Amino acid sequence: MAITEDEARKVAHLARIAVKDADLPALAQELNGILHFMEQLNEVDVEGVEPMTGVEPMRLKRRQDVVTDGEMQDLILKNAPDAREGFFAVPKVVE
Amino acid sequence: MSDLNKLTIAQARDGLRKGDFTSTELTEACLGAIDAAGALNAYSHKTPEKAREMAAAADKRIAAGDAPAMCGIPLGIKDLFCTRDVPSQAASRILEGFLPQYESTVTQNLWDAGAVMLGKLSMDEFAMGSSNESACYGPVVNPWKVDDRQLTPGGSSGGSAAAVAADLCLAATGTDTGGSIRQPAAFTGTVGLKPTYGRVSRWGVIAFASSLDQAGPMTKSVRDAAIMLGAMASVDAKDSTSAERPVPDYEAALTGDIRGRRIGIPREYRMEGMSDEIDALWHKAAEMLRDAGAEVVDITLPHTKYALPAYYVIAPAEASSNLARYDGVRYGRRARLGAGDGVVEMYEKTRAEGFGPEVQRRVMIGTYVLSAGFYDAYYNRARKVRALIKRDFDQVFADGIDAILTPATPSAAFGLGEMSGKDPVEMYLNDVFTVTVNLAGLPGISVPVGLDRQGLPLGMQLIGRPWDEGGLLNLAQSLESAAGFAAKPSRWW
């Protein structure tokens, strides 16, 4: 599988990273190099093997579904690049 | 008392308890060494005021007879750990100005034990790298130097390794996703331990690849690693993958008796093109363990070859999800926007200027392998191969092997800039001996065993059974004392 310039553009957009058109050929080439390296995995017989999800065969811990934390709006907004009236502010989302 | 910064944790603990010196004196010695070591660029942020306050508090505890082992011990903290009101930016421009309003569980555990924070240590951006060259603070320089070249301290915990090797702290925290504790430890003649996955809480540690990340100690001796792991580890309700297991006394496990322990030598780790020196040192290390009474056995881990490609699918996949949170909304940098730019332009511009090239590359690779149509071909296949890699280890341990001995790295430290412009895959090869351990969730430790012809340190790795850090540390200490590695970098900075 080889990544074309168009696909590189699509991946960059999915990743929400702006890439200049002029940089797309180099990006596609780099990604292809890495994918080529990964293709060694096709040599392995994985028939009947379950994909591993975690290293310990343990069930995730459960707890009572209750509020354990909160009432810290100021602390949460403290690092926001733009916070107004108790909210995170962003550019217009809906036209 | 001079040169207090050169002490190990164990020596300092004993001296503090005896009243030979105070934590304040110990801390001042470290702060002085840090100020004189700007050329190494190890600390990205210094916290001298905080250090002095914490040292004074520790001195009071010690005087009152309430002194856990880490009480009064000055530490450096990798920039990946969130520390309250102290910059914590994973060496990335995207977290510029971020001041966490909470403390990571690991650092909180250390402060509760009385340890002293000297500052934050540089690293590869988001822990992605093996040379520390991707840090937004500029590269860290290895205190080891044999010619005109400046060498890498390794990565990603390169600031931690350089600071420990140059005595700019007594010990440091590191994190290891594919070798990020063990490779820099090997490059700097220090000890680095990656615990079993789940032994140390990940809460408050900036996430790279959540199923692989694990924090651990970087120290001047194996004993210190045992002491510090005991303080870092805990059962933590805030990390759903934190194991419900009591934390044993790791120092008590250092009995010095390794008779009858079975050490496996995996034939697949004898890589093509591996240097004679590393091969010879590997043989020598096996001899040392045999002389101490262990039984050395040849073993096979047949899927080793596929660990690196599997890792470079799984780690970027998890990273692309974890790093989605850096969007310019809640913390860190937001790009300056043009007239008419909407929220998507804000995301794209913020991430383009906030992430460095290696992070961008991995986020995009991760996005690709998780995208519709490729998920099965790459991501699911890699996770199946991961299951086979773990099965290889399970089999070996079921056959009665207690630990596995391998080289820690394929070479000694290389020069800064020597890998730039090369294929990214070449840099990834640095992790060839260490990634298997993260994929299988096992504990692994790098111990300095000798110097190469140039005079640079080389490390050996011991891999243990899950949850057997105690047994692993005991073997590592046996290797450490047989090797008698005492070399230190001569000061040029």
Write a compact overview of the structure shown.
Chain A: Keywords: ATP-binding, Ligase, Nucleotide-binding, Protein biosynthesis, Transferase. The complex is a heterodimer of chains A (95) and B (493). Chain A is built from 3 helices and 2 strands; from the N terminus they run αααββ.
Describe this entry's structure for a reader:
Chain B: It comes from Paracoccus versutus. Chain B: Its EC number is 6.3.5.7. Chain B: Residues 25-473 form the Amidase domain. Chain B: One of its GO terms (cellular component) is glutamyl-tRNA(Gln) amidotransferase complex. Chain A is mainly alpha-helical and 95 residues long. Chain A has a domain at 5-43. Helix content of chain A is 32%, strand content 4%. Chain A has helices at residues 5-14, 24-38, 73-77, and strands at 83-84, 87-88. In chain A, strand 1 and strand 2 form a beta hairpin. The model of chain A has no long low-confidence stretch (mean pLDDT 91). Chain B is of the alpha/beta class and 493 residues long. Chain B has helices at residues 9-18, 23-35, 48-63, 105-112, 158-165, 182-188, 222-232, 276-291, 307-322, 343-354, 357-370, 375-398, 424-428, 435-440, 469-483; strands spanning 43-46, 74-78, 116-121, 171-176, 191-194, 214-219, 262-266, 295-299, 403-407, 444-451, 457-464. An eleven-stranded mixed β-sheet of chain B has the order 1-3-2-4-6-5-10-11-9-7-8, with helices on both faces. In chain B, strand 2, helix 4 and strand 3 (116-121) form a beta-alpha-beta unit. Chain B is globular, with a radius of gyration of 21 Å. In chain B, 62% of the residues are buried. Chains A and B meet through helix 1 and helix 2 of A and helix 9, helix 10, helix 11, helix 12 and helix 13 of B.
